[in-house]
Amino acid sequence: MRKLIAGNWKMNGLISSQAEIEALRGLTGEATCDIVVCPPFTLIDRAVERAKDSNLVIGAQDCHAQQSGAHTGDVSAEMLADIGARYVILGHSERRVSYGEDDEIVHAKAVAAHRAGLIAIVCVGETRHERDEGRAIEVVGEQLAESIPEGATGANLIIAYEPVWAIGTGLVPTNKQIEEVHAAIRHMLEEWLGDDGHSVKILYGGSVKASNAAAIFGLRNVDGALVGGASLKASEFAGIISAAF
Ligand code: 13P
C-alpha cells in the first residue's frame, strides 16, 4: 500500500508559516508517498492555494457534526470541503481530553466528514495506565467499534493509532507493541468492512521523527504516520517523508 505521511500542526502556525507549505510543496514532486498537512483552520485556505497544482494535500484538525447552525466557534465539514480541505483529523486524544469528545461524538463527526466528501483520519490510542493494565488492544478496539461510521471504505477512512503516552513525549512503543496493535486494528477492519478493511490505511502517531521513521515504516500494517512536532519544520518533515517507501 502507498504510504501516507500526515502532519498535524495542532495550534501552531501564522501567516508567515506559509514558507513551510511552500517548501513541502517542493518535496511532493519526487515523493513516493502521499503527503498531507493539517494546519490550523486559519491557514487552510492559504495552504490550499499554495498547494495548488502539486501533490501536497491539505486537511483540517477537527470539524463539527452539523452542517451549519448556532454553534459558536465551530467549523463544519462542509465549510472545510468548501475551502479545499480533503482530509480531517477526528478524535485526537488532545480533543478527547480537553473537550470531552467521546466515541459517539467522533462517530457523528466521521459521518459529517463523509457527508461532505472528506477523508476522515480517526485517531485511537490507549493511555499509559491502560497499557500498563494490559488493555491497549481492548481500548483501541472499543474506540474503533464505536466511532467508525456506516459506509466507511479504504477511500474515505484512515485510522491513526496514537498511544496517548507517546504523543509529544519522545517515547515510542516497541516495534512489537506497534505491530500488535496495528495487526489487531487490521483484523477488526477486515471483520467489519470486508475487503475494504484491507485498504484502510493505518497510520502510527506519537514521537515520529526522521531518526525513527524508517524503522516504524518497516513494520507490518504500518501504512504511514501522523506526525505532530516534527511536521512543523519542512526540513525535519522531509526526513520522515524520505524514509517512506
Ligand atoms: P508528536 O509527533 O509531536 O508526538 O504528536 C503526535 C500527534 O499527536 C499527531 O497527531
Note the quaternary state here. single chain
Helix-residue proportion: 40-55%
Rg over CA atoms, rounded to whole Å, is: 17 Å
The rounded distance between the terminal residues' Cα atoms is 10 Å
Choose one word for the global shape.
globular
Largest sheet geometry: 8 strands, parallel, barrel
Report the count of strand segments: 8
Structure description:
With 245 residues, this protein is an alpha/beta fold. It has a single domain, classed as Aldolase class I (TIM Barrel). The protein contains eleven helices and eight strands. It has helices spanning 18-28, 41-51, 77-82, 93-99, 103-115, 128-132, 136-147, 175-193, 196-199, 210-217, 234-243, and strands at 4-8, 34-38, 56-60, 87-90, 119-124, 157-161, 201-205, 224-227. The chain has an eight-stranded parallel beta barrel with strand order 1-2-3-4-5-6-7-8, surrounded by seven helices. Strand 3, helix 3 and strand 4 form a beta-alpha-beta unit. The chain is globular and about 45 Å long. It starts with a strand and ends with a helix. Bound molecules: 1,3-dihydroxyacetonephosphate (13P). 1,3-dihydroxyacetonephosphate (13P) binds next to strand 8.
